[in-house]
Amino acid sequence: MHHRYDVLVVGAGGAGLMAALYAAKGNVSVACISKLYPTRSHTGAAQGGVGAALGNVQEDHWEWHMFDTIKGGDYLTDQDAAEIFSKDVIEAVYELEHMGLPFSRTEEGKIAQRKFGGHTREFGKAAVERSCYAKDRTGHMILQTLYQQNVKAGTTFYNEFHVTDLIIEDGRCRGVVAYDLSTGEIHTYHAKAVILAAGGYGRIFKITSNALTLTGDLMSIYYRKGLPLEDMEFYQFHPTGLSKLGILVTEGIRGEGGILRNSTGERFMERYAPTIKDLAPRDIVSRSIITEIREGRGVGRDGDAINLDLTHLPRETIEQKLAEITDLARTYLGLDPIKDLVPIQPTAHYAMGGIPTDVNGLCLSDGHGGSIEGLYAAGEQACVSLHGANRLGTNSLGDLIVFGRRAGIYAAQYARQVDYGTMPENPEAESKDMLNRMKNASGTDNAALIRKELQETMMNNVGIFRNGPDMEKQVEIVKELKARYKNVSVSDPSQRYNSELMEAMELGFMLDCAEAMTASALNRTESRGAHDREDYGERDDANWLKHTMAYKDLHNDNNVLIGYKDVSLKGYTRAFEPKPRVY
Ligand SMILES: Cc1cc2nc3c(=O)[nH]c(=O)nc-3n(C[C@H](O)[C@H](O)[C@H](O)COP(=O)(O)OP(=O)(O)OC[C@H]3O[C@@H](n4cnc5c(N)ncnc54)[C@H](O)[C@@H]3O)c2cc1C
Description:
Blueprint lengths: L1 E9 L3 H11 L5 E5 L15 E2 L10 H11 L6 H21 L13 E9 L4 E7 L5 H16 L2 E4 L1 E9 L2 E9 L5 E11 L20 H8 L4 E2 L4 E8 L9 H4 L3 E3 L7 H4 L9 H13 L11 E4 L5 H7 L1 H11 L8 E10 L3 E2 L5 E3 L6 E7 L4 E2 L11 H23 L11 H12 L6 H15 L3 E2 L1 H18 L13 H25 L8 E2 L7 H4 L1 E7 L7 E7 L17
Parallel strand pairs: 1-2, 1-9, 2-6, 9-17, 15-18, 19-20
Antiparallel strand pairs: 3-5, 4-5, 7-8, 8-9, 10-21, 11-14, 12-13, 13-14, 16-17, 21-22
Helix pairs in contact: 1-4, 1-11, 2-3, 3-11, 5-15, 13-14, 13-15, 14-15
Flavin-adenine dinucleotide (FAD) binds next to α1, β2, α4, β7 and α11.
């Protein structure tokens, strides 16, 4: 089946819905394709809130937010993106309020705000209340609000359609190909502009907070075309996932006063970050937890967790402000945070890197200003490089609404100016081949086993602490898993809802993301933000103040080519920080 829209959006999370809404407001026809029903997108799991310097509870300024974002990103953040973001996110939050998003309120009726890791006032002096929240269901409310607004604006939705290919010809994007999960049919979509917003890829790790569907599909599709993925080595582990399960325990819980304790009951963050203690940025807290565990002060049966203590908080705070997570601890661990300590461990959480874009969402084809006409990206799968080497909590939801909106506006503007380009003949041929290969393969290898091995080895070899020999080992492991993947066969012949086929395809995407991440991480011989190398412990601005651009070598499937891109600077350097560094 063939369709035609001025603007096509892939993904219906916060970024996709914001982009679709703004494209629809731009007087063009808009369709949004999503492999999930929109309100089931991972954005719905975001609990903590969206950071914006509204100053409702305490004095705050966008310049302070900009500085925190850059410092949190360990100076790899593009400072032009951080400036736009910190200014625009204020207005974007009010806009969501006016669309009807039910934010929690202060006593005077303003949007309530709470503290979050790494967010400070006066350039690092003390923590500030900046996170705007709707209890611990902020992301859920964002999705519901934006979905309703899209329905009102006339966006057409293709739900449970899995995008399998992007059509790019002569440097311009022409559309996409998608597989209809409910019928097994292939659809082609011809468009003037396409916006990619397909989310993260945390599923390449064993312990992750990410939904089952976060498999990096569009990053891989982009990369397979010889186009670059930026800063893939920077992957954030959230310090607090429920032990063994990875399910996220929001940082908001520490914002409300939750404390991390080791097996001796010590509040160990006092040793690692004396000023902001449990609210230090995520990379610092994750590494502190792993250090405690490695030094034998872990808790739980395997000694591989740390306790989160909420028992000193008022019952109402736990029941009302942290309702969702209280429920998860009760359901999955049989523990009641009101009286029990909750065992947690770091969980793979957020991709700082992804498809490179400029500040208007336009996708970049190299590190020197090249771009793909008509192709935009936003959200976790994109890298406008707002988060640099490490994202601050609450800055992702802000990123979705600020840069999702910009991508929508600029894509619609472009679509109004151009004609439909020509679609190549048989645009669906490659997707058909890929699916048929898997359906008809006679190999005996099993996708689930390969996936399990990928997740375990990525966790061990390219996880929180990294070193050269382990990552070199991982390069070989990924090669071997890719070779085995070629022999994977799908036993279920169904046309309708063939989840085995979809999961096998997703595994191929995950292998690409893992390959790009491992090569980029091995190449960067310094420690910065979330990228922590035991063999290169220091940050090295002289050699590494630059973004990595990883390309698949189209002449040798197992080779990754590395290029670089400059960091945009606007005056903030480490010299600007108060001394000593306050955490
Ligand atoms: C548990 C959890 C809690 C979080 N809490 C916070 C928080 O409090 N504050 C904060 O700022 N950030 C938080 N984050 C991070 C933030 O929520 C995510 O980074 C953000 O929601 C990603 O949004 P997105 O729109 O980019 O993608 P998603 O919301 O993940 O949506 C991806 C969309 O892409 C679609 N898709 C994917 N692949 C395909 C394909 N091949 N074909 C068609 N469609 C496809 C999916 O159907 C989906 O609609 C949290 C993340 C997690 C996992």
